[in-house]
Amino acid sequence: MNTLVDLTHIMEDKMPVFPGTRAPEFIDNCTIEKNGFNEKLLSLQSHTGTHIDAPFHIFSDGKSLSDFALNAFCGKAICLEHTIENPLTTRHVNSIHNSLKKVDFVLIYTGWSQYWRTIRYFDAFPVPDTEVLNMLVSYQLKGLGIDTISVDQVKSEDLLNHRLLLGNDLIIIENLTNLRPLLNVVFDFFCFPLHINKGDGSPVRAVART
Fold first, then answer.
1. pTM for the complete prediction?
2. d(CA 64, CA 201)
3. Backbone phi, then psi, for 119, in 5-degree steps?
4. Could you tell me the domains of the chain?
């Protein structure tokens, strides 16, 4: 029997956002008492919560969300561990060569989602090094996801990991959660964005099907 696993943080007032980014607002613009129906007014930036980065996020001539076919946002995935205690290495990537040939997405479990809604979430989280990412890019993936605020450190100015992944037309999915149960297994992955013309990014409802 198939099981669906929600990999998405809930969107709500006072949710964490990248430092310096405008916080989202969820306003009860219409209510049953006043208008006969409930309707919220949403104000948020395109990289709020669990979201996708498209190449256009970094490159002015990069592909936007509307340039991708719908199947770019779903496929087979594998979840790999990259924690401070157990970092992902090129040796590990080599050891799962056959599995990587069969998937479209690699999701990175760091365990950092446990710090969601705390100040620690933004500081010193583990990200894969460039050598590991170069190896993963060579597998012709559709995308890479991670359970941190970014694939680069918050204070990074060169954004090397973003440039490497997006420069190869991969999408990046950030702020994932609930990845631990998926470690080292292959599963179906879905991360459909809003259908935004020339979108540089979008919140998604990321889901695994095991």
1. 0.96
2. 8
3. -65, -25
4. 4-8+47-209 (3.50.30.50)
